[in-house]
């Protein structure tokens, strides 16, 4: 198989989801890879547009990107459709483990590129180098498969990255989107923007009958009635489609959902109305 890797100016622009720059078919840059490059080269030139892009996409869409635009999220969706004797919906420690993606964002995407630098003062993309299974699948494996010279140069780091990818692939069959839930720093960034994003989920209190069906069908284990714009909601609309009364809707709305920033129950709204 032969071909040319696109190296044009469009590849300097970020796309919303994880999209490895090294992928032979990539036409754009990964925002997490670009963010690490920006932080690592801060002594030379800081590209504010990368940070601005992440903030703009997060403010407009939140984790809608995770649910509908990320190719690696789609791959995990397909893997989860593979039949298996017993799927795992949740487990002890699941909630605590979800904070791991924020630790990865802080350590591997920000702190290491910022402080662990070479003699030129240049940081490296440590998340891409040490963890990212999307990069291994989209870039590492295809490049090694298509380039004989690279095959003789692979070592423990490549084996480590392939092992992480294999673990994520296997876990994706058992669990729904394990990388999105526990490891993805891009999901962490978009997640914190969920409560203030223009695209949000809304529950009509008058129509809601508190049957709990929306919470039972949510693959991310979010209760839309209690926390309609939770950090983990990827806007997949499964809860909306399952609602028997049509109480759940999604769309673009202006304004901050301040009563639900930290998952406050809807009953508080009623208490405030009564007290006033």
From TrEMBL:
GO cellular component: plasma membrane
Domain 4Fe-4S ferredoxin-type: 199-228, 229-253
PROSITE patterns tied to this protein: 4FE4S_FER_1, 4FE4S_FER_2, PROKAR_LIPOPROTEIN
One GO MF term attached to the UniProt entry: 4 iron, 4 sulfur cluster binding
Cited Pfam families: Fer4, Fer4_5, Fer4_6
Membrane-spanning segments: 46-75, 96-117, 153-176
InterPro entries the record matches: 4Fe4S_Fe-S-bd, 4Fe4S_Fe_S_CS, Electron_Trans/Redox
UniProt keywords, alphabetically: 4Fe-4S, Electron transport, Iron, Iron-sulfur, Membrane, Metal-binding, Transmembrane, Transmembrane helix, Transport
SUPFAM superfamilies recorded: 4Fe-4S ferredoxins (SSF54862)
Keyword 4Fe-4S: yes
Gene3D superfamilies from the UniProt entry: 3.30.70.20
Keyword Metal-binding: yes
PANTHER family recorded: FERREDOXIN-TYPE PROTEIN NAPH
Protein name, entry field: 4Fe-4S binding protein
Species name: Zongyangia hominis
Record lineage: Bacteria, Bacillati, Bacillota, Clostridia, Eubacteriales
């Amino acid at each position: 198989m032969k071909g040319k890797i696109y190296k044009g100016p469009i590849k300097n622009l970020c796309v919303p989801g994880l999209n490895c720059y090294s992928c032979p078919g990539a036409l754009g840059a990964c925002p997490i890879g670009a963010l690490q490059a920006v932080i690592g080269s801060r002594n030379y030139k800081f590209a504010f547009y990368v940070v601005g892009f992440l903030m703009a996409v997060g403010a407009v869409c939140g984790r809608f990107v995770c649910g509908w635009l990320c190719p690696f999220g789609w791959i995990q969706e397909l893997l989860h459709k593979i039949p298996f004797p017993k799927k795992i919906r949740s487990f002890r420690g699941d909630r605590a483990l979800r904070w791991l993606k924020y630790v990865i964002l802080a350590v591997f995407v920000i702190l290491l590129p910022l402080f662990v630098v070479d003699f030129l003062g240049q940081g490296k993309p440590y998340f891409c180098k040490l963890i990212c299974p999307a990069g291994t699948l989209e870039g590492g494996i295809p490049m090694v498969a298509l380039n004989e010279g690279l095959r003789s140069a692979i070592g423990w780091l490549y084996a480590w990255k392939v092992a992480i990818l294999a673990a994520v692939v296997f876990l994706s069959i058992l669990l729904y989107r394990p990388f999105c839930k526990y490891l993805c720093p891009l999901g962490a960034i978009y997640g914190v923007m969920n409560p203030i994003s223009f695209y949000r989920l809304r529950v009509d209190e008058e129509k809601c009958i508190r049957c709990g069906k929306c919470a039972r069908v949510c693959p991310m284990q979010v209760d839309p009635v209690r926390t309609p714009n939770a950090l983990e909601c990827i806007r997949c609309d499964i809860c909306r489609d399952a609602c028997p009364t049509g109480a759940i809707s999604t769309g673009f709305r202006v304004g901050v959902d301040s009563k639900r920033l930290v998952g406050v129950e809807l009953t508080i709204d009623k208490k405030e109305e009564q007290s006033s």
